[in-house]
Amino acid sequence: MTNQDGYAASNQVGKGTYYVKELKAPKGYSLNTKVYSVEAHWDKAKTTSTNNRSETIYTTDESQKSPGTATVGWLVGNTFYKEKPEGKDAKVAYIKKSTEEASTTTEVKENQNEGAGTVLLNETIPNTKLGELPSTGSVGTYLFTAIGSAAMIGAIGIYIVKRRKA
């Protein structure tokens, strides 16, 4: 599968040889039948992950709510509901405190023989535009057909006249 720019991308490729072949040509282009080989190998892998954590503390006491916040839902005991639950003694909930934090971790691993890595095809795969076919059935074809037919009829007429005289 390729992305919107036409690149096949995967970071879950095991070590080895892979083959790339075009299965469907873009509109207006001819299908490339060549098979390209790609060798996957790597020495190190760098992974970066970001973890986002958010925590919201709710209150039913309007005097404890964060400034500028309005009613956000309902509380039954310590359970928050966005919609008012049926048949329960729900109280209006306000945001008392809201925190968000993000942590980023980067890890570099040495390859231990086999593994998954990233592979780039360094060879450019050409796109060949389809050529235009000559038009058929236009007015010019009728003109040449008429001239050719007239020449054939004339040749047959000359042949018949010369044969009678002989």
Automatic annotation (TrEMBL):
Is Manganese one of the keywords UniProt gives this record? no
Q: Where is the Gram-positive cocci surface proteins LPxTG domain?
A: 133-166
Give the record's keywords alphabetically: Cell wall, Membrane, Peptidoglycan-anchor, Secreted, Signal, Transmembrane, Transmembrane helix
Q: What PROSITE patterns does the annotation carry?
A: GRAM_POS_ANCHORING (PS50847)
Q: A Pfam family for this UniProt protein?
A: Gram_pos_anchor
Specify the domain of life of the species encoding this protein: Bacteria
Which residue ranges does UniProt annotate as crossing the membrane?
142-161
NCBIfam families per record? LPXTG_anchor (TIGR01167)
Name recorded for this polypeptide: Gram positive anchor
Query: Which organism does this record belong to?
Result: Streptococcus ictaluri 707-05
